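Below is a filled-in request sheet from our internal design queue. Each sheet records the structural input a requester submitted and the sequence that came back. We keep these sheets so that new team members can see what a complete request looks like end to end.

REQUESTER: design group, bay 2
PRIORITY: normal
MODE: inverse folding
CHAIN LENGTH: 229
BACKBONE (tokenized):
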């Protein structure tokens, strides 16, 4: 797709009122400061990050660090998460920029039309888990209710809303790139069968955003999510 056409399509999507599911759509972008193909996807995620019906998360992987620039946001745990998604999908490789939408659909992150099609599809699906989160002092209270039982993993995610980095070496040397919704902490806080309501208070100091994701075990579909910006 030509850049101008892609920009027009993205603008149209961001202004469209789409029928919403009962929870936001989670978009995980696997990216790297050392990847020359990633800046367009990073910019696209920035646009998605402003939507209330999307939880946009940038997970920086470390397997591009060897080419001359160590990504300052990279975490091997995010590389492991991407590989786990690949195994769940019976894929033989991982790549950047990759977007995983609601834990199910894998799309090249620099192809906005394909990403938008998947977003619109997921926005029309009913999620089986309702998630509510509230702040209380330095804690976050998580409440979830499921329409069906299952083998669920409850995860708490923290991210930095935005940070600009001057990249001095590697494929993006000389560029100054602004990154959005940079994940710096991802932890499993509970296992849940969905039979009874889930309630848990988790320590989450500070005022940076908090996301809670309920996902089927072994990197299955995301079945419910909520965020506090």
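RETURNED SEQUENCE:
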């Amino acid at each position: 797709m030509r850049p101008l056409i892609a920009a027009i399509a993205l603008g149209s999507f961001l202004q469209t009122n789409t029928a919403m599911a009962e929870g936001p759509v989670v978009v995980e972008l696997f990216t790297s400061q050392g990847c020359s193909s990633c800046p367009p996807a990073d910019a696209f995620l920035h646009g998605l990050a402003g939507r209330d019906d999307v939880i946009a998360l940038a997970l920086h992987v470390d397997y591009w660090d060897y080419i001359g620039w160590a990504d300052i946001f990279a975490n091997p745990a995010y590389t492991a998460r991407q590989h786990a998604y690949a195994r769940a999908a019976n894929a033989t490789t991982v790549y950047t920029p990759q977007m995983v939408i609601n834990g199910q659909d894998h799309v090249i992150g620099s192809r906005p039309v394909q990403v938008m099609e998947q977003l619109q599809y997921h926005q029309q699906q009913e999620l089986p888990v309702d998630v509510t989160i509230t702040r209380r002092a330095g804690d976050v209270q998580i409440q979830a209710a499921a329409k069906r039982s299952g083998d669920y993993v409850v995860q708490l995610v923290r991210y930095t809303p935005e940070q600009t980095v001057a990249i001095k070496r590697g494929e993006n040397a000389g560029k100054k790139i602004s990154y959005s919704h940079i994940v710096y902490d991802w932890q499993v806080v509970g296992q849940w069968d969905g039979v009874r309501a889930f309630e848990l208070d988790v320590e989450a100091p500070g005022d940076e955003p908090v996301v809670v994701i309920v996902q089927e075990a072994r990197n299955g579909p995301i079945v419910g999510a909520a965020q506090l910006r």
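SHEET NOTES:
- Residues 3-228 form a domain with the Glutaredoxin fold (CATH 3.40.30.10).
- The CA atoms of residues 58 and 86 lie 17 Å apart.
FILED BY: M.R.
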